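It would be a great kindness if you could assist me with a short task in structural biology. The full record is reproduced below for your convenience:
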Amino acid sequence: MPDLATYRAGVGAAPDEMLAWPLHGTGLESLGRGGRPELIPTPQPGPRELLCRVDAAGLCFSDIKILTLGSKHPRISGRDLSRDPVIMGHEAALTVVAVGAELQQQYHLGDRFVVQADIIYRGQGVAFGYALPGALAQFTRIGAEILEGDEGRYIIPIEPDTGYAEAALSEPWACVERSYRTTHRTSFRQGGTALLGAAAGADTGAVVLGELASGPWPARLVLAGLSGVSQFGAQARSWQAEGELEEHDALTPALFEGRQFADIVLIGNVEPEVIEAASAALDKGGILCLVRSDPLPRPVRVDVGRIHYDDVHYLGTTSSDLSTGYRSRASDLKPGGKAWFLGAGGPMGQMHVQRASEDPDGPSLIVASDVDADRLGTIPERYGAAAQQNAIELVCLDPNALGPEAFNGRLTSLAREGFDDVVCLAPVPALIPGALARVGRDGVLNLFAGLARGTVVELDLTPVFQRGVRLIGTSGSAISDLEFTLRKTERGQLSPNRSVAAIGGMRAARDGLEAVQKGRFAGKVVIYPQIPDLALTRLEDLAAVLPDVAAHLAEGAVWTREAELALIEHYL
């Protein structure tokens, strides 16, 4: 067996066969064979490919979506898993153990990388751990899709001393960071199609484009209900002199049928039916801006899944200057503000709370709520000291324990004027209307939880224009987000290891996925594929199983680089 130094250097021939967990259908019963991983041939790299050892793999609830949907999952749609199984796992730390002949000047044995999973190759999405074989295998082949992708190289180098688990968990952490790093358009989409429409009888005499008039300009402008000699209509026509212009006498739901718009601005007391039709016609990355003062007469049906997956935004203003509706503060939590995290007890929720608690420029109040009392109870234990150090009040609330009246009363007493940031981390549609109602002036409702497209919720959008509330959502991360997160980890500004709740070897991956599915842990499960037989083990229980490894845990049973090296050395 190699020693630790040899292992870390990636030296030594890869075995002819390896353990892997192919998914042959839907459900845990379709994972591997007979509840165990399969022994399959180790892939061999071609001239322009790498063979990488999988050192650590984080398990994610996104893996559960693949288990549940199988070939119906949008990222592997139509694939016959019985004949062409997938190998899941998109949170990976890799070490190069073989280099193709044509890449030997660029890559070397022992090079270490993390993978940006959202891969686009020749215009097609081929995500790692979905279309491409992922991290639930002892080795994986890295080819042109990852090395020569449409957005560049989808593997990012790791510093030699960075831990395997903390590197692998940079991927879910990058999704968290992206939700606060993302920028929002403050103008019309250049080259897109914009619609400016007014309700019948709306007074548009004082309406102006404001800063929107300085561009960029859409390629096509549609005006509805703005015919005649209105000053605003004339300004819009003049502004669009070099593009295509389309005019309609009235703003009706039929106007949106079968069409897609990058920007839709609705002026005056537009009927809810029109708003619903407009909402359905938003393109990816589209913006619906409501310009009105009077409350909506009823809630509006909104596809909240599209806010998360398609980056559509809802915003508004009561001002006659349309550009004020497009203005927004940064996506990051408001410094000194009040933040509420719904569903904070789960692994991703805890990451959001950890980030906020450890931020010296973070909010002054963090409210974490969850219906799982055990998971909620770990939050003050893990992050209370950091919050206190940064003068942040950390409050944990269990709606079930308090009851609806006491829970709502407590939220009101903590944020009488509303929260500056509300982050929804529980994929529960029924929570969203109440969350929106709790957002204060110029606040942000971040729908981080991945509700499926087609999830329609009735929302009172009145706060969007009366209080300037912005509805946003993000899905996944970009290469720059992963680079940012990894560097933040390596500078000591972020500790993904604090997210680890349990570890296991390769044969424990099925148990780990079942634990994720059932929400057994408040933190992340990390699998070490090169260790075949370590059972799934909570860090709190590690001393009874591996006392020599547990001795290197930080206070509070927190995973560390030292514990990880002791684990690997133990099994070597």
Remarks:
- Residues 373-389 form the longest helix (17 residues).
- The longest strand covers residues 282-291.
- The chain has a mean pLDDT of 93.
- The chain has three domains: 4-179+480-499, 193-326, 338-426.
